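Recap quiz, item 2
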Amino acid sequence: MSILVSKEDKVLVAGITGREGRARTRLMKGYGTNVVAGVSPGHGGEEVEGVPVFDTVAAAVEAVGEVYAAVVFVPGPAVKEAAVEAFAGGVKLAVLVPDRVPIWDAMAIDAAAREHGARYVGPNTLGVLSVDKAVLGMVGGRAESAREWFKPGPVGISSRSGGITSSLAYYLGRAGVGATTLVHVGGDPIVGTPHQDAVRLFQEDADTKAVVMFGEIGGSQEEKVAELIAEGVVTKPVVAFIGGKAATEGTRFSHAGAIVEGGRGTYEGKVGALREAGAIVVDDYDKVAEYTLGVLKDLGEV
Amino acid sequence: MVRLYEYQGKGLLRRAGVKVPPGRAARSAAEATVIAREIGAPVVLKAQVFITGRAAVGGIKFAENAMAAERVAGRDFLGRTFRGQRCDVVLVERKLNVAREMYAAVVVDNDARMPLLIFSSVGGTGVEEIAANHPEALVKRYLDAARGLYGYEARELARRAGLRGRELVAVADVLVKLWRVARDAEARAAEINPLVVTDEGEVVAADCRVTADDYAVYRHPELDVQVAREFDRPPTELDLIAYNVEKDDYRGTFYFVQLAEGFAPEDRCVALHGAGGGGSMMSMDAALAEGFKVANFCDTSGNPPASKVYRAACILLAQKNVVGYFGSGSGVASQEQFHSARGLVKAFREVWLDVPCVERLGGNQEERAIRILTEYTKDLPAPVECYGKDTPARHCARRLRELVDGYDYGVRHEKPPGLPHNSSYSFRTVTGGTVSYDYARCEGCDSKVCVADCVPQILKLEDGRPALNIGAEEAARGRCTECLACEVECRARGNGGGRITLPIAGLHEYLKKTR
């Protein structure tokens, strides 16, 4: 098993005729994702990487039947339109890759997702990859790299940084620890599937035995994971690393979500909450794999 | 998240129909006196800087008449700094007769993913203190962005906070209008603190803080935001130069913020060039762990073209007295790393790099990236080392420390004269750059690496010389992705006939002034 996406899931690509849309459709198909349709207004009837292109989501669904997931590659200001159209077309999961999505657009997307009972990942995400099954978005960049870097195994990976999502999976794999699914929750202050949601999904997934999480200063996602552990909702071991130790109040990084404000979202606060709840917080990034291996040995998974 | 000045926020409130004290922003003492005369003394002068607790540091003062306003504005405000922030604008307003202070705000709640309206019939301090000391006076309500806020809901909120009668009606009216201001500006937060009841019984916004959304300001020209990025100080010249590069080039991300200025070599500041938000953050931690300070934070990621990485490197290296250049990302980047390598090579060769550099370019095509960066920089005065995904960031930071410790900074290195270049053929690029070829050089070149290595494959050979195989217009619209192969690869493997100039507005002037 895995979370969020698997081999059979039917996927459409919004913005398939753009620079990123084309390149990542190649990656997704190459990795095994079941890409059944593309949507690009004005390009209906064309084909990209052997995928038929439609003018609207409704047209795509009429032609190929119900679609499970939509991966969105349109410029930030157009993401709201694409996401809401996908939900209205019955899509259950939207992966919103672009950054620069206005925050009021993000709130509108959220409201639409709730209305339609759908989920979204992102915005500002590299996406989701279930090892050796399917990828939504651009994790790995190239299919051959993704196959080389990511090994199957019992760990779920959730990260607030795109680069670190791949980096964690690679370093774990090198240490002999494979993964079920990699989730880049996104770098923005508002994201559809924050750490606490991803970790819950991993808790419910039979094949995931432990979770590795890359957190960052700012926001409260890591604290919410700590709450879930403390409440006993999450019982699988969580190994965490928190980035941004050196940051002081108000320091700005390139992730809009990574900022300490009003004394909240600090490195110390997150580490403290997670440790108190029983998670393993690793101080040295280069030791994450070693600790995870230890956890799996204790579980008898290695 | 870019902050607006008080006077800008009050402008939005005024246009929405919320009462604010009569007054205007002044940029000179003479202007301050004109305003004071217009509105009638006594007036209050308020420093337009992004700090809290202005009164405590002399950022709010009163003046009894227009003459005094001029004196106070010139002497105590304009050109002065308040907790490190220079005050260039002073707000001159009629002094209010304050009877009571209240608090009102609309903020985007990131966890709830909805706008939240907060009102308190007690104000003046921060909202956390109000919540702790006067919980009964504080009311909150989540709002549906599409549905908005009805007047009766606002009145009920005001009633629950303890208001009655005319005051209840006046406050409810402010709440509805504040909601509209926040929504119409797509603000991250719009706060009135204090919202004042005057002795005359009027409800007036005495202060206002609006935080706009970086990603939405492009559709809000009315906010008059020059740099859609939050600084806890006005942007530096380099911040602005970097911001303008990013603003005009949507491909990939280039984020830059200066963290130190006016430092000496002994301060051991390095230029930090990260890739990816998390990776950059960890690279910063790695550099600090080795006893360095960082001159800046920088992130080029999201598949940026080589030209963007080049411009970033030029800007980083314009920081005087950095002792080294440290580049490191997440380690396993999805993007094709050789683009970044080419951008760095071009920048390092142009500035004739004379501080040690350690780069970690792990990820797709890293072997190629490492080869390009190390081989094409061998003749530079300073050492350039490059690593891939199997070398941790901390090791790279340690290598940089070793290189810096062993490097002789006392030697001046003159850049040797470049090859003469007579343009025989040229075309423009999407960011105002120019690609040109000196055919006299191309004649003797067997490699034709310009055509072979061109990423978008837009070049062909014409009588053995490179030329576009598409229209020049099309190239200038972005088909030429500025992969820099026809300069960087041509110099290393061809005959050096290709040259690319990529302007960076303001950088030349900056360097002239600081060097």
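The CA atoms of residues 265 and 296 of chain B lie 15 Å apart.
Chain B has four domains: 22-94, 98-223, 237-405, 425-501.
End of item.
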